[in-house]
């Protein structure tokens, strides 16, 4: 099957791996809110579930 890899290092991304997301400029007023990040994460989870269904269904 397909696997995901970190763009810069090429190392595989594994289940349970954690990431730290930082803003380049902490004084910048346009940093996305936690709610938007959470919504984006939920959309990615739904997309992953849909892909799993098509692959195995």
Helix and strand arrangement:
Elements lengths: L33 H23 L1
Main sheet record: none
Note the run of SSEs as H and E.
Answer: H
Give me the number of helical elements. Answer: 1
Proportion in helices: 40-55%
* Tally of strands: 0
As a whole number of angstroms, the C-alpha radius of gyration is: 15 Å
- The shape, in one word, is flat
The assigned structural class equals mainly alpha
Determine the strand fraction and express it as a percent band: under 5%
Low-confidence segments, given as residue ranges, are none
State the end-to-end distance. Answer: 15 Å
The overall pLDDT, averaged over residues, is 72
What this model shows, in words?
There is one protein chain. The longest helix is centred in the C-terminal third of the chain and has 23 residues, at 34-56. Helices cover 40% and strands 0% of the residues. With 57 residues, the protein is mostly helical. The protein has one helix at 34-56. It starts with 33 loop residues before the first helix and ends with a helix. The relative contact order is 0.09. The radius of gyration is 15 Å and the shape is flat.
